[in-house]
Amino acid sequence: MGRRNSYQFPFSRYPAVRIALLLIAGILVGHYYQISLFVSGTVFLGVGAIFFFAEWKNIQTVNHWLTKFSALLFLVIVFLFGLFRMSLQSGHSASQTVRLIQVSDWESVTVSGSVQSISVTSSGKERWDVKVDTSRFGVIVSDQPYKVRVLADEAAGRATLGDRVSFSGTIIPISEKRNPKQFDYKDYLASQNIFAQIQIDSLISITPNNNIAEWIWWREQALELVDQNFDTQTAPIAKALLVGYKLDLDSESKAAFARAGLSHIMAVSGLHVGFIVAPFWIIIPYFWTKKHGSIIGLAVLVLILICYAGITGFSASVLRASVMAFFLSYGKLFHKVNNSINLTAAAAVCLLIFNPSQLFDIGFQLSFSAVLIILLLLPVIQSKLPYWIRIRWYGTPIMVVIVSLVVQFGLYPLQVYYFGEISLVSPIANALFVPLLGIVVPLSLIALFITSVFPAVGFIINYPSFLFLGWMSDFVNLASTWDWAWTTASLESSLIFVLWFFLILGISSWQISALRWRLLIGFLATIVLMLSLNFIQKLKPATLTLTFFDVGQGDAALLKTPNDKHILIDAGVWSPGYNSGRSIILPHLQSAGIKKLDAIILSHPHADHIGGILDLIEEMPVDVIYNSGYEYDSKLYHSYLELAKKRSIPTIPLVAGDTLNVDRSILFLVLGPDGRTYNSDPNEHSVVLNVIYGESEFLFTGDAGEDQEERLLHAYTDLLDTDILKVGHHGSRTSSSLPFLKTVTPDIAVVSLAERNRFRHPHKEALTRLQQSQAELLFTSLERAIILESDGKAIHRVRW
Q: What are phi and psi of 107, to 5 degrees?
């Protein structure tokens, strides 16, 4: 008996898949290795020349091996094109005007341009994105166009989309990523082609936009019509649902929809474009009956997609969905539906050729992953679902639940990696609302057109949608309060993506025995590799990790012990509309998969050390809060004590001589305060903590000044010698006295402060004394967050 042939994947049926994979590989290499445009372009052109020469020779003399060589060269060219395209994108330089702005922080500038979007910050301040066409720097005038983020609180409520504005303002530096796992605001703006930020000082003029030839005018009219048809509760939801305008949604609403598993309906994407295209699909059989019907149908589809994309602002998500809808509809019109996976890959290729940076966009990854997961897994699941269920009235909601579960299962690694949260109520929410959205979205869009002519008639037609969105809003707000509705999660290893790859493909190809066993072997091999790496990690010495967050002019440090306990020392700053707990500490904890704080130690009750405590207590389980015991008259101080009591979190004042029983491998020795009140300054009664792990010592001094340092010298001279010193009071002249530093003798001194602060920290006198101690000075204002790690013998810095 002859040997059975091994299974080979039919790549010939999926040429776009092969091209997409090679193009992505080239883009990834270009992104991570930063290969120069000259090198990538030269290699691409060189291999291209060889390919065309081989093809020419093959035409002259047909040769089997030459044909294979040409095919191989073509695949290499696709890879090299991805590499070249990414190098070209990375090598694109900003205009001279933008470069001038980037080196002119805090300087004055006068600009004119059109308002492209209007939004509100988390603190309620208005901001615009303006397409600038004229800039004036003193006597220098530039007409080079660029986009700028405008802090427009001084002109709040005075502009609408498309208006032409002229104003003078101050160039504000864009905040870069200051902490690991923190949202990279600067990178986000760069992805929107915004490289500058200006705060309005004086609004010179506003000219309303009356140009109906611009899409932004139609978009503004659509938003005004939405306001007419909905109330203040449902209008922000309707704008996001129908027009993709999410800027009126507050952060609480966005979080509520995410936790209810319905955030995908708030971003105009494949679901919404599908609702728009669905009526077109119904009449596709009609086009089949006409001469050139398929071409005419395709032209009609393109017109529909362009109009809807224009109304929604040509956002990246709408363009992605439109391209995918175009290819899938093309397959339907020209009887190529069986190649949906191939057509989806073709859509990805087109988008990546146009903008290779989209590969690193969360929306791009989620959109295409969701579509591919549905195309791969849903047929397998449908084949197991009895036909009599599918044809019943409840068949549709059951399929919606199944699709929701399939997508949530398939996207689990991506969702956890980017968001750290998983909605458990999502299948129920999607079953309740998504089927009806197929009626609500087209109905509401039709109502908008009618409202523009007959407002009363349009409102009546839209009324069912108005009621529906009200009910959905009430459900979302209720579901977001259920403790079981969502959960946090984290990825222990990046290999989980490889594991999921084998799992998804294994399920989708379960009927192909040869491929099934190969994928199963890959799945099991990945598990073995993950377990092996985990075992090797456990063989390494247990480590203590200390992260000094960059919270600006304040303090916050996270201590992770060898036994995986987590202690937060101080909670950062507070200001109206902002605190470090919500913006920095909580996102870090959630991204790191930390589900509980074993202790919070608050050195003293000033707002730059307890600023984020309320959000931390609200959002994160806390075992115990230690403080200095110093009574302080502030609303923030009393609020956190009341909230801790309400949540049954013990608050324990510390005194010198106490030890903390958090991790048996570490000695937490309290050196201050001593329990007595010396003056009215909370700084001089700070918690001073000595953390000892093996041969490594860390000394935290809060905002202790010279008076408390002197008391420490008298009481604990032999215990103050340390390796790492958290410098007291942000480098103030009243801290870090010379006698204290001579006793402490730190190898590294960490100063937590903002680069621009009204106290002018660090003071020159303190810096001089710190330099005399010969310690390595690390400033969070310059270094950003600082991570130190110790195995109990040596301490080293971890770069991020």
A: -90, 165
